[in-house]
Design a protein that fits this description.
6-stranded antiparallel β-sheet; Immunoglobulin-like; alpha+beta; Lipoxygenase-1; 5-stranded antiparallel β-sheet; 3 domains; single chain
Length: about 375
Amino acid sequence: MKRALVIIYLVFLVTNATDISILDATIKDKSIENVEVIFQKNGESSIKANSDSSGKVSISTPFNDDSSNVVMILKKDGYSTMAIKCPCDGFVYAMSPVLENLDSFRVVLSWDKDPYDMDLHLAYGNKHIFWDNKMQISDNAYLDVDDRDGYGPETITIQNRMDGEKYIFFVHDFTGYDKQKFNKIKNLKVYVYAGKSLLRTYNIPPNIGNNRIWIPFYIDEEGKIVDKNIITSDKNTETRYLVSIVKESLNLESAITISNNDKKMAKTLNAQGEKAYHEKKYNDALMFYNDSIFLNPNDGQTYSNLGLLYQKMGNHSEALWANRKAIDLASGSKANTIKASSYYNIARIYESEGDLQKALDNYTKALNNRNSKAYKDAIEKIKAKMK
């Protein structure tokens, strides 16, 4: 009997494993080896592993827990760090090479085996990037990878975002005319990168019915990422006509609601992030702020704090995004103060990068929101440099 119990226990140990695969987001089917994979759980030490030559990691399930209590971090030089809340077992992860340009974005779509052909689209101006129109060379926007047999990734990169242009990202189920396959959608996620970091992760909302278009977000004319999470029908139309449907759908209600408990916990996590920041524990602060945003992506103060943190860490692209998001969400009696300080922070980044015109534009926006001698002095200094 004891021997039988031992065998059962050993089988449990063998089968209770976490298996993941890691690919390059920009090169089809390219595995990444020697990725450092770190699992962390509150109150317990980290567990580490490395991907093999085929980009795979297989270890006994860390902490015997594959739930949202565990965070998995993927790290490798030359790639953006990914921090993912589990469950993680059985997933394929696509890491983004670091984006060098200040106003670059990379968007990655991944999913499970079924449906096998999901498509990532980008619409801006009168242009539409997707599997049949992969590149706009003059605008430096292109589809890196198109996947037709499950999992993904599908990847679209904007190398240089243009001011005054709205970039709408959406997902279409190309196999959705077979409703049985569409209803099997699992683990459909969109990842948004800038600089060295994963900025946002979007999960498809539940109860999608027979709709086949998902609009997770768009980037507005000033570079702010605007969350949407809209599900809508493709009306059985041809792919080339999807953009008009998507643009008409932007005013629909979001499919995501935030509970009062999540809002309360998000405030607690934000406070913990502020404490860690003042203690110069920047990686801890980053984790707290990201966890807060995961629970409540509508709190402008958290984004403002995150923007300061990214600037302190020297991650300028990420800081631009966070400050712009703080501006987008600013409300109440302190709205103008938050907007002014965020525009000021954005201006300082552009000034440090030598883009004086954008620095001047943002210092001016800061002054328009709050009358401050510091903003006036900054404007005069930039004007002097531009002579």
